[in-house]
Write a structure and sequence with these properties.
Largest sheet: 3 strands, antiparallel
Number of strands: 3
CATH class: Mainly Alpha
Strand content: 5-15%
InterPro entries: 7TM_GPCR_serpentine_rcpt_Srh (IPR019422)
Radius of gyration: 23 Å
Pfam families: 7TM_GPCR_Srh
Distance between the termini: 42 Å
Protein name: G protein-coupled receptor
Number of helices: 9
Low-confidence stretches: 2-18
CATH topology: Rhopdopsin 7-helix transmembrane proteins
Organism: Pristionchus pacificus (Parasitic nematode worm)
Shape: elongated
Length: 307
Amino acid sequence: VCCHSNRLMNGQRVETPVHDSMRNGGICIAVNASQGAFNCILLIAGLWTHALSDGYFLAIVYGPVKYAPMWLRDIVTSLAVFMVFSLWQFITAPCIVQYLVLFRKSMPNAARVGIAYLFTAISMGMSVPYFWIFVPYSAIVEQLRTIARRVQLLTDDDTYVVYGIGMREDPANGNRTAFGLAFYGIAPSYSLTYAVFGFTVLKIVRLLGRVNTELSIKTIELQRGFVKMQVIQGFIPLVILTIPFATFITFIFTGANLDNWTLMLTFSQWSLPAVQAIVYLKYLVRARRSEEERNHRILSAIPNSSN
């Protein structure tokens, strides 16, 4: 995806509005693709599975990071939690950039990208206190391991590491709860992100739906394709994570032992980077092919000087 976005950024030289859109959009796609790639690396390193049982939300590590020193495991786990938040926190940047390209034509490209990712940084800042919430205090580690052994039928010969957070306040674990994670860590940034996402998409669609002589047909087609991709990308996390998140919310309010039914959340988290990459690649390949066809038509229309 990064390779295709780089080719697309550097390949457009004919029309300034299109070039600005492709360059800025290509930067955002490359950043988001890099975020997805890093997420995949963490998933491979940890091979986390999840379990909701006995009043705890567990993340069980089976990947190679389980052999690392404890401090490194804790860092990787905290980064993995950050990457889960980033699944929705990064989706607004391309839309904000496209909005600024269309509505703030005099703004420098660097300023557009900076403003777009400033909002992402603010959204991430709201969630920072919860990135390491799954790292348990030593007093409850053995309790978490006992739950994991029962739910996933593990033995003393199995090598694994367990992280988790409880439903109820527990001084032994710093009184941190899954309720706080859901309603103070996830909900604010999630709601703000999708509010901005919906606003920018609506404004862009309204502009592209009007007859505007300042925008060429090529620009409009490009922008419509880009916003369509962003709508799909924005709703992918909603669609794929709907059932797992509903399961998590059910656990928070009922405390039911969902045990291995929680693996729906695991499989959803594993599949998201691949699905998002496919959407990006589909857009980039089509946009690149369209651009090559357009350049070919332009070159064909130029009279041959030898004649």
